[in-house]
Structure formats: C-alpha cells, structure tokens
Amino acid sequence: DAAMTRLLCAISALALLGKPAMAADPVKIPFNVVEEAFKTAECTAGLKDEERTDVGDLVGLLKLVEFPCWHATYQSGSILFAVNPAAPERARLLRFQIWSANGLVWTYSLTEPDYDPLTRKLSSFHKGRAGGDCGAIGEWKWVNGDFRLTGYWYKDNCDGKPFDDSKSWRVYPMPR
Known about the structure:
The protein has 176 residues and is an alpha+beta fold.
C-alpha cells in the first residue's frame, strides 16, 4: 500500500511537471470592430477574423491586444486595443501622441510596439533605415484609461552614428 501511494504521488508529480505554463486566454474581438479600426488607422496588412492573445494587463479587467497593421522591409507596425474579454464588442482602438515638425500629433499605429505589464509602459522604435541610426523612439505610460506620452526622441540624420534615447535626441519633453 505504501508502494502504491508513492507510485500515485510520483504519477501526480509528473503530470504537474508536464503541464504547460498557463497562457493568456485568446481574446476574440468581433470582426466588424477590427475592420472599422483597420479603416480608421489606414492599415494595409491582411485582415483575418481570428482570436488574439493579449499583450498584457492594463488595469482591472482590461487587456492590451495587438493586431498587425502594416509591414515594411525591415519593420512593421501594429494597432492596439484596450479590451475587457467579457465585452470584446466594446474593444477600444487606442491612439498615441507622437512628435512631428508641427508639434504633437495623434497616430493609431506604432512601429514594433513593446509593452511591459509590470510598469504599464509601452515603447516603439521606428527606424529611418535598416541600420537604425536614425528614426523615432517613443515611450508611453498607461494612466487613467489611456497611454500618455512620457518621452520622444527623434534623429533625422542617418549618419551611421548610433541613435538611442539619450538626451541629445530628446524632443519631448524638451530637455532642460
């Protein structure tokens, strides 16, 4: 009987070890909601009616869900939704402030977005060319139901010298 108990414990332990890590449940945003967002954001990527695994938790029940919006030779862009999985028909297409020569403007798609659910920070790096020596870097933080721009760096001179988020390229907020 003791041998049988040890055997059952060993089988249970193996079963637990063999279980895959719990993955986020896919979120199915209705096709008409995604289709309308693709039009609003002027996306050019192929649109499929499919479930998406969320990128991370925002706050409360809200999840951040990403859809590819456009593709280029060496980078791509996405649109993002804030969605409560219990009410996917009410998914909200997010928009983001970015810096331009005309000041701050709004956009719906971000290049290569990266979200950290622990800090609720989102970042994006749009390369001006493949080498990444020019372009734009943006950072946003989830605050009161939206992503707020916290930093923006811009380098238009593709000179072969490194481009990063140092003070020399910061355009928002302006360095002091």
